[in-house]
Amino acid sequence: MNAWRVWTAGPADAETLASLEALAFGGRSWGGDSVKESFVAPRVTVLLGGENVREPLGFAVWRDLGSEAELLTIGVVAPARGKGLGEALLSGVIRAAQDARAERCFLEVDALNETAAALYKKAGFTPVGERRRYYADGGDAVVMALDL
Ligand SMILES: CC(C)(COP(=O)(O)OP(=O)(O)OC[C@H]1O[C@@H](n2cnc3c(N)ncnc32)[C@H](O)[C@@H]1OP(=O)(O)O)[C@@H](O)C(=O)NCCC(=O)NCCS
């Protein structure tokens, strides 16, 4: 198993985040400008991950809402998938949210995205609700939560 590193990104990583997000999500990308706003949005933190800081292969973006934390997006480039990086990034978010004294972490996941749902379930998230027609293409989302 790879020894993944996860680190906090800064505004200088905006282009890197935008290209990783486009690679990970393809046609369902937020788009470069939107994803770059993560660096100026209040209480939002971007984590990057990879074998070393010179070559990030995945990202996670979360928001500190006080007693709650929200995972906004997470992705790993296709060639690096299935090797634990998604899990390492999600653990990084959970740790950071615990450090920020959040009591609960929640997220929305596409109801058809079984891969992501499996990642979240493995980390202990459970379904707590649904949001009908949540996505721009009309897809439903499942809300999942984890008590920290
Ligand atoms: C979801 C995603 C981030 C997972 O990253 P990853 O690095 O491949 O995941 P990991 O290797 O850490 O896998 C962790 C767990 O996730 C689940 N998982 C990962 N890939 C899976 C697959 N192809 N099928 C089913 N479950 C899978 C498993 O439970 C796995 O644990 P296991 O290896 O013990 O079985 C990655 O597939 C991705 O970037 N997908 C496209 C973007 C996306 O859908 N993001 C989430 C929506 S916001």
Low-confidence stretches: none
Number of strands: 7
- Which hetero compounds are present in the coordinates? coenzyme A
Radius of gyration: 14 Å
CATH architecture: 3-Layer(aba) Sandwich
SS content category:
alpha+beta
Biggest sheet descriptor: 7 strands, mixed
Q: How is the CATH topology named?
A: Aminopeptidase
Q: Helical stretch count?
A: 4
- What number of domains? 1
- Report the span from N to C terminus: 26 Å
Proportion of beta-strand residues? 25-35%
Share of helix among residues? 25-40%
Tell me the name of the CATH homologous superfamily.
Gcn5-related N-acetyltransferase (GNAT)
Element order, helices and strands? EHHEEEHEHEE
Shape: globular
Mean pLDDT: 96
Strand numbers in spatial order across the main sheet: 1-2-3-4-5-7-6
So what's the CATH class?
Answer: Alpha Beta
